[in-house]
Design goal:
755 residues, alpha/beta, 4 domains, six-stranded parallel β-sheet, rod-shaped, disordered C terminus
């Protein structure tokens, strides 16, 4: 995952702050108002509004001047049709004698009906305080009183109400809450519980709540007060209903502006507002509004999640995800709105596209920077045209990329053609042993043209190449060389790891199969000839040595004859040594020398070499001092006989240059992932100028005039050949203690492979 850019953190933080401090509230409320207009519904039948309209005032003139008397007549008439609750707004002046007379009639009517709710207007008046107005309303005789509580926004648009407000030393319910409290089982049980919980919690009760308006004016069922008094309405309209006796037209000159009603001429009257507030509480259409801090956390979390996902995805998937995420957020907001959960949408509606835009710009800048760097490299490599303008030009960069891609294609075609013309069968295997590439020979070697070639196992079967059952272990591992049979062919199979596989933690493997049928036949003939010549050289020499030894046993020989015979014996022994050394050298360079490659305990090889070289050292009075430690014991892969012969050659050279009475140190030690054989002699050391030719055939040790013993000049060359074939290294140094030190380092068994 890429490192998260700074804008992916700044944008969510900024959006969360805007939401937390309500800086986007004006825009959120406009969105709410538009959605509210799409969310209108029918008014519940349980609520009926009695409207004192112009017709009622014409038929009953006292409705204008004697408000208490008008309400009393309506209560008496409604009491005959058995509504569940009667609510009424009562405006009166206790100083007016006519209102005082009407109040007496109203008290008698309220006492007869019983379940009534009065609405007390507690706004500022010229002649009494809010508490005085409420106390006066209490004396009228309503069973309970509710307050006219309207929640107005900063834009003077009404979107909700309050459950209650403190007045006259107690928490008083709103008019809508008071009506529903008196409605009994007409209100669903869960709604009664919610209302009671809100009223019992002063913190909740005094907080404004947002409710869904039914619509504009005229949405709630209205009946003229004149029709009520004249008995022109069927009794079923009133039975078990919540009846609200509204104000007269003179009292409703100012309409209320709500989220759905618009201004002035389309606004709601106070009576209609109260009816819609009651309907919202009755049906549960009250929006749940979260705290600003919660809204901020939601907005910030969504934006941060969006940023993390965008940062993780590649270009095409990121684009698809961004579109899908935007749609998903929009649907989630609509679902939440339908479930009456209000979440401020403006912050996300702005921040998400901004996040996408900034991410696109960021990726463009990052890509342009990377592209500019790569173009600079391509220009240095002369695979891109030179710049014609200062700075970064996208069109010019695209032209450079096209040229570089064309160059890469040409190189790829060249490499493919080069691989195809190779006589060896070449394939490339990925970490799962799937075939990724094969040249023409890899296809032509198939015994069955229809055989599948999807995996390494398939290809091995198709070309009849017989490898060990665990050959798959070489895929993705180190280099390896194996002799095998491919049908009738004798082949060598090379495994070579390649960097840059499809998976970051895996490597591709190059498998190269080279036919050795003719070469092996020639090699065997050459080896037979060498063995024959070596035998023909050694057999007469051995016979001559035995002859000289037999003759020298004769005591009658003259000193001059004995000297001649001893010279002949030395020369014969030297001929045997030369033949043996030459045969070892040839054998070390032969591919067949490694057909016996197997795990070898290196300490045993060194011990056997020391035992073999001890007689030669003793004859010269030189000690071989061997140091072996169990902790340094380790295994290598190779030919034990060749390794032993190489150590013997080092020991033989060390004994030759060490003066009598001296010693040769031999030890085995571990160096990181390798085992080292160290041989240190007591000679004069090796000059740095002669080290470069030290391991050549017939090198400087064979020609040194200071040596009392001449060599063939193949011993160190044979050592180098053996060590190289075992993937090892030979080091030469002159230690401060004197002499020369030869060190052979061979990879441990888990790292070793034979060429």
């Amino acid at each position: 995952m890429r490192r998260l850019p700074i804008h992916a953190l700044v944008i969510p933080l900024l959006a969360a702050l805007l939401v937390g401090f309500n800086l986007l509230a004006p825009f959120d409320t406009r969105v709410y108002d538009q959605l509210m207009r799409l969310h209108q519904r029918e008014a519940p039948p349980e609520i009926v509004l009695v409207h004192i309209d112009g017709e009622a005032e014409r038929r009953y003139p006292d409705f204008i001047d004697r408000r208490p008397l008008a309400v009393a007549r309506l209560v008496d008439r409604l009491n005959q049709v058995k509504p569940r609750v009667i609510g009424a707004y009562l405006a009166f002046d206790p100083r007016d004698p006519r209102d005082r007379e009407g109040l007496g009639v109203l008290r008698e009517a309220l006492a007869r009906h019983g379940n009534t709710v009065g609405k007390a207007f507690v706004g500022d008046t010229a002649h009494q305080s809010a508490e005085e107005a409420f106390r006066a309303a209490e004396k009228v005789g309503f069973r309970t009183l509710g307050l006219q509580l309207i929640a107005t926004g900063d834009d003077n648009v009404i979107r909700g109400s309050f459950h209650a407000a403190p007045l006259a030393g107690a928490l008083r319910p709103s008019f809508a809450v008071a009506l529903l409290q008196q409605a009994g089982d007409l209100v669903p049980e869960e709604r009664r519980a919610a209302l009671q919980a809100a009223f019992d919690s002063p913190t909740v009760a005094e907080d404004a709540y947002v409710f869904a308006f039914l619509g504009g004016g005229g949405t709630v069922r209205r009946v003229s007060a004149a029709d009520v008094l004249d008995g022109e309405v069927h009794p079923d309209v009133w039975r078990d209903r919540l009846v609200i006796i509204g104000q007269s037209e003179q009292d409703t000159e100012i309409n209320l502006t709500t989220a759905v009603s618009g201004w002035a001429e389309h606004g709601l009257t106070v009576d209609e507002y109260e009816a819609q507030a009651t309907a919202a509480l009755l049906t549960g259409h009250v929006f749940r509004v979260l705290a600003p801090s919660t809204d901020a956390a939601i907005v910030g979390g969504v934006l941060l999640l969006f940023a993390l996902a965008l940062n993780h995805l590649r270009q095409r998937r990121a684009a698809v995800f961004a579109v899908g995420f935007l749609v998903l957020v929009g649907v989630a907001y609509l679902v939440a709105y339908r479930m009456l959960l209000w979440l401020p949408p403006v912050a996300l509606a702005i921040a998400l596209p901004v996040q996408v835009f900034v991410e696109v710009i960021h990726r463009y800048v990052r890509s342009a920077s990377m592209l500019a760097a790569e173009i600079a490299v391509l220009r240095r490599e002369a695979t891109a045209p030179p710049a014609t303008r200062r700075g970064f030009d996208f069109d010019e960069a695209l032209a450079a990329v096209r040229q570089a891609v064309a160059s890469i294609r040409r190189q790829r075609e060249y490499v493919h053609r080069l691989i195809d013309v190779q006589p060896a069968a070449i394939i490339v295997i990925d970490g799962q042993q799937r075939l990724r590439l094969g040249n023409a020979q890899a296809v032509a070697w198939r015994t069955d043209p229809e055989a599948p070639m999807g995996t390494l196992r398939d290809w091995l079967a198709a070309v009849d190449l017989r490898l060990p059952a665990d050959a798959g272990q070489y895929v993705g591992a180190g280099s390896a060389r194996l002799l095998a049979q491919c049908g009738e062919r004798e082949v060598v199979v090379a495994f070579e790891p390649l960097p840059g596989g499809r998976e970051p933690d895996q490597h591709d493997t190059l498998v190269c199969v080279t036919e050795l049928t003719g070469l092996m036949a020639d090699q065997r003939e050459r080896q037979a000839a060498i063995d024959f010549l070596s035998h023909d050289l050694r057999a007469p020499a051995h016979a001559l040595v035995e002859l000289c030894e037999g003759v020298l046993a004769d005591p009658t020989l003259t000193p001059s004859t004995q000297q001649v015979l001893r010279s002949a014996e030395r020369l014969s022994r030297r001929m045997v040594q030369m033949a043996t050394t030459y045969l070892d050298f040839v054998r070390s360079a032969s591919p067949e020398a490694f057909t016996r490659a197997e795990p070898v305990l290196l300490a045993d090889v060194v011990l056997e070499a020391v035992e073999t070289s001890t007689p030669e050292a003793s004859a010269k009075h030189v000690r071989l001092e061997l140091a072996l430690d169990d902790q340094e014991a380790g295994w290598v892969i190779g030919d034990a006989a060749l390794l032993r012969r190489a150590v013997e050659n080092l020991l033989s050279n060390a004994v030759k240059v060490t003066p009598p009475g001296g010693h040769v140190d031999v030890r085995v030690e571990r160096r990181r992932e390798a085992l080292a054989i160290v041989v240190r002699d007591g000679g004069p050391g090796i000059a740095p100028s002669r080290r470069s030719q030290l391991f050549q055939r017939f090198g400087p040790l064979a020609r040194t005039p200071k040596s009392s013993t001449r060599s063939v000049g193949l011993g160190l060359a044979m050592v180098m050949s053996v060590v190289a074939r075992h993937r090892g290294t030979v080091f030469v140094d002159n230690p401060p203690e004197g002499g020369a030190e030869f060190r052979i380092e061979l990879p441990l068994e888990r790292e070793a492979s034979v060429a």
